[in-house]
């Protein structure tokens, strides 16, 4: 994908994040890999609703700014940790979606097997340990999870999603927030019913039949390590 195309995608994604209320004021950041040595990034101190293709900056893989009109985002180390651990990932979105963030404040996990669509898309949406924002603690907190997860909650600090493109990373953010909203409402209504191991097995089987590789953990120690299954958080 050309740099011009990536710039347009990031700007459009930023607008979508802002319009959906996934960030407030100048919160959040979006990046995309230009090549093995450089990334495009949203600048610090700019509302995501005001990001334009021309306002993006280019950084190297240490976070040093190479070009662009603004300052490097304070969360760039979080993004770089994903790119260094996952050569298959080309874009990262970090935002503060309210329901997903609220779950972490309340200590409610999205990792339990509740919604089939979440299991198929993510396996588990784990919550990383608390880390001081914009510090080296962030990369350390996600390092043990990002190798097998495309979406993470950051304890009291929003969500982090990764994808092949800015749009894929954004849509994963949208799905995480939707799942968090459903779980929030379910807790208000009463007991939250988890899927059984048998139901999860049938989801795995159904997706394999349709040629879909599901990132599903069976939540059963005896089944870990089998083909197509991932370890738990």
Summarize the structure.
39% of the residues lie in helices and 14% in strands.
Task: Describe what this molecule looks like in 3D.
The chain has 233 residues and is of the alpha+beta class. It has one domain: L-fuculose-1-phosphate Aldolase. The protein contains 7 helices and 8 strands; from the N terminus they run αββββαβααβαββαα. The chain has an 8-stranded mixed β-sheet, with helices on both faces. α2 runs parallel beside α5 (137-146) and α3 (98-106) packs across α6.
What's the SSE blueprint?
Blueprint: H1 3-19, E1 29-33, E2 38-41, E3 57-60, E4 65-67, H2 76-85, E5 91-95, H3 98-106, H4 116-122, E6 126-128, H5 137-146, E7 151-154, E8 159-163, H6 166-189, H7 197-209
Parallel strand pairs: 6-7
Antiparallel strand pairs: 1-2, 1-5, 2-3, 3-4, 5-8, 7-8
Helix pairs in contact: 2-5, 3-6
| Sheet with the most strands: spatial strand order | 4-3-2-1-5-8-7-6
Number of domains: 1
Question: Structural class per helix/strand content?
Answer: alpha+beta
> What value does the average pLDDT take?
90
Into which percent range does the helicity of residues fall? 25-40%
The radius of gyration computed from the alpha-carbon positions, rounded to a whole number of angstroms, is: 18 Å
CATH topology: L-fuculose-1-phosphate Aldolase
Number of helices: 7
Q: Under the CATH scheme, which class? A: Alpha Beta
CATH homologous superfamily title: Class II aldolase/adducin N-terminal domain
Largest sheet: 8 strands, mixed
Count of β-strands: 8
